[in-house]
Amino acid sequence: MLINTVILFIRDLLPIFILFCFFISTLRGGDIYKKTWLYIVFSSVLGIFITFYFYSVLSDLFDGFGIEIIKTIALILFYACLLFGGAFLVNQQSLTLLKQRIIIAGLVLFIIITASEFIVFLNSYITNTQSLRDIAAGLSIGLGICFSFSALFYFLLSWLKRKKNFTVLFCFLALFLSGQISQVVNLLQQVDIITNSEALWNSSNIIKDSSEYGHLFKTLLGYEASPSLEFVMFYALSLVIFFIIFYTNTSKKFKFKSATREDK
Amino acid sequence: MNSHIRQCLFLALSLFISLKTQASTQEFYLTLENHVFTPSELNIPANKKVKLIILNKDLVAEEFDSFDLNREKVLFPKRKSTIFIGPLKSGRYEYFGEYHPNSAIGIIIVGADNVN
User: Fold this and answer.
1) Residues of B at the A interface (Cβ-Cβ below 8 Å)?
2) Domains of chain B
3) pTM
4) ipTM value greater than 0.85
5) Going by DSSP bridges, is the β-strand pair B50-56/B71-75 parallel, antiparallel, or unpaired?
């Protein structure tokens, strides 16, 4: 059960920690105030508990496919928010109030989608586990792994930012977000909205989906040992869109800087 | 006006999903009781899409999870949940309950002769 708790922490909570690492490491000082952080925490906690409370009701919507449909819509919205805001963050441009709000909305949405599933597990775990010590041990190990991994990841991202290696930084963000949004394909195949085709390859002999590395790579890059054609196409399309947005944004910033220098 | 549009969209989406799922897909059933899936081995036909209906008789939620099938679904207590699987090649596809992986385990056996 302890290993299971650790795996669920990596699967459900580590993505939130990673997203926060991206957010904090790329954020310029003074762009977001303490009050905004409180707003993020409050709205996320409220959203998680409301979702948890109505989870079974949501599940019954759309002929029993409610969770899949709602999660798909939420993931697409989250992707759109971060697609819009990600390039501004990575390029170190100042954030207007609208940009801030869009990024925060994406962040809160993602926290609610991911953490509410974890709360369902936690509820089931607490109901079944007699010993408080087991619960405490599971939570401590899981949180410890998430904190230590995200601390290392944060230092890596901060180092990239200091070296002004924004392309690599953006690659990490693009891979992470493409991995998250591509889950939409599995969700829609599960409810028969997208046709399910055979797996293109099977890399289980290298990294199994069920292994700790499999879970970690799934969180970081959306790794699937046996992805379908639809999954790969969606993933590739997401990466292409990301890079188009990033380079358009970067060239705009470059042109603006050049024009400002010429004016001076 | 906005609420009318929202209602129409909701109805259209529901209708679309209902029509799509009403097609003649073969149904198979699994039951979860005391954190154990029954039958533990389920035979389904090869190269055909099937509908898997899972009834969770327990008092707590469980998550149906299968890496082989690329499927994940929270099974709420005392409720039926549905997922579509396949078309699959012949073989053995493992699944388990994410919250009780030691007891809630099973195999879906896909074979050309498995026409229930």
Assistant:
1) 13-14, 17-18, 20-21, 25, 49, 59-63, 67-68, 70-74, 76, 79-87, 89, 98-101
2) 25-111 (2.60.40.420)
3) 0.85
4) no
5) unpaired
